[in-house]
């Protein structure tokens, strides 16, 4: 049985690696492609910043609504079935830029990216985490989530390294091909983590809704199968999940601040580095490569050693504190080498993400892992709605000649402040008993 689980997890890791590789290989090039399409031959482009921020906000709004739904449906119909949808959709926008990167093609990509990412962004990560939780016991879950993050970091390193030596046209062609291979590999080799006889009955064993609302009508002795829309969680179901566990609620608050800082970093860092130090595709790739290597080694080897003696709650706080230090150094960077030096702090700051996921996972039972991870990813998406609305205009303003003071790293300083708020909140998360999911569900039934 253990060998079967190990094989299943190895196929998950390979699928996850290829899917993330296809996304990360295009990341270093997308800023140059965007600015070349919108503002050729310039180092500053407010239009590119605002369009990128708008795209990020709309995608975040869509995924905020979609993540809890996808997570919940995976509890009903299985992780593999739901994985097929985002992995297939993610191929489409990459294929557009693989054909051409002119202004017209870029706008087609821009629209398709928004539409597909509403389903794709975060859902692969959410479903992979739920798949791991199906196969890993609670006391090993933090290490397993750390390893999954390490696989993501490894794909980040490989994708960034490939982008460093490939042309823009080749980057998008390789990304498209790897995405296709990932879907085929997943469909052939990955086994469903939820047994067939539990896929349709998991909601009934640990209901979230009130008993009266969860009753299934019968015709004779044959129950009527619930329609799909009845299995989609309502706002009340999500609120009930938060009420059932104070630790889950506090973890969700910390996740909001952590992901808000991440969204702000995505919205501002590259434009800040380009305007301040004239970074290009190769320098972005070098910086990402160092960051990814440090994060990979730390999550694969250092975190599993620390999680047992320290615990995931303390690792979360430590990770947020180092994330604050990293953002602060970026904000006051006085030379191009400072961002490179700051990547050393990534070795510890990467602990925050798997720690959040591990703490959240322990607050619910086996039949609610998809819902819990979907809620956390939904919070991540909500942060991605808010972050560009704040940081895109803030970055553009402080990089422009109209800025009230000469402080191009002001947006990074704001990110540092957000992370220190998250750190303070993380100290308030209490240690909770091992997964009292039956209790959580019954509490919801009594609401």
UniProtKB/TrEMBL annotation:
Annotated membrane topology: Multi-pass membrane protein
Keyword hit for Transmembrane helix: yes
TM region positions: 12-30, 50-69, 81-98, 110-132, 144-165, 171-190, 252-272, 284-303, 315-334, 381-399, 405-429
Gene Ontology terms for molecular function: transmembrane transporter activity
Alphabetic keyword roster: Membrane, Transmembrane, Transmembrane helix, Transport
Domain of life (superkingdom): Eukaryota
PROSITE patterns: MFS
Principal cellular location given in the protein's record: membrane
Protein location: Membrane
Lineage of source species: Eukaryota, Viridiplantae, Streptophyta, Embryophyta, Tracheophyta
Protein name: Tetracycline resistance protein, TetA/multidrug resistance protein MdtG
């Amino acid at each position: 049985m253990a060998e079967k689980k190990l094989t299943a997890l190895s196929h998950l890791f390979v699928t996850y690696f290829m899917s993330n590789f296809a996304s990360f290989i295009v990341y270093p090039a997308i800023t140059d492609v965007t600015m070349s399409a919108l503002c050729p031959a310039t180092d500053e482009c407010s239009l590119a910043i605002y369009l990128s921020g708008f795209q990020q906000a709309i995608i975040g709004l869509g995924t905020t609504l979609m993540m809890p739904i996808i997570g919940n449906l995976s509890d009903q119909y299985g992780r593999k079935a739901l994985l097929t949808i985002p992995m297939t959709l993610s191929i489409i926008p990459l294929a557009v830029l693989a054909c051409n990167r002119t202004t017209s093609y870029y706008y087609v990509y821009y629209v398709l990216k928004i539409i597909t990412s509403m389903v794709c962004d975060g859902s692969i990560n959410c479903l992979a985490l739920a798949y791991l939780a199906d196969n890993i016991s609670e006391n090993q879950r933090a290490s397993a989530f750390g390893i999954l993050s390490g696989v993501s970091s490894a794909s980040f390193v490989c994708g960034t390294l490939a982008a460093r030596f490939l042309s823009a046209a080749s980057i998008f062609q390789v990304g498209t091909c790897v995405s296709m291979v990932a879907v085929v590999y997943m469909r052939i080799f990955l086994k469903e983590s939820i047994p067939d006889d539990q896929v349709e009955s998991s909601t009934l064993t640990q209901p979230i809704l009130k008993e009266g609302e969860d009753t299934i009508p019968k015709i004779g002795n044959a129950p009527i199968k619930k329609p799909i829309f009845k299995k989609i969680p309502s706002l009340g179901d999500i609120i009930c999940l938060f009420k059932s566990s104070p630790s889950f609620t506090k973890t969700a608050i910390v996740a909001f601040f952590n992901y808000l800082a991440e969204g702000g970093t995505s919205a501002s860092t590259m434009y800040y580095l380009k305007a301040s130090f004239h970074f290009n595709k190769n320098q972005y790739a070098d910086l990402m490569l160092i960051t990814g290597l440090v994060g990979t080694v730390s999550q694969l080897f250092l975190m599993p050693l620390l999680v047992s003696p320290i615990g995931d709650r303390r690792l979360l706080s430590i990770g947020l504190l180092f994330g604050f230090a990293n953002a602060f150094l970026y904000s006051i960077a006085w030379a191009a080498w400072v961002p490179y030096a700051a990547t050393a702090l990534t070795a510890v700051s990467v602990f925050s993400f798997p720690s959040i996921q591990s703490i959240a996972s322990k607050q619910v039972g086996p039949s609610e892992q998809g819902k819990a991870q979907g809620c956390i990813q939904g919070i991540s998406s909500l942060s991605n709605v808010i972050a560009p609305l704040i940081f895109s205009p803030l970055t553009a303003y402080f990089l422009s000649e109209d800025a009230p003071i000469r402080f191009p790293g002001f947006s990074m300083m704001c990110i540092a402040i957000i992370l220190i708020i998250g750190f303070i909140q993380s100290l308030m998360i209490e240690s909770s008993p091992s997964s009292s999911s039956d209790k959580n569900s019954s509490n919801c039934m009594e609401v």
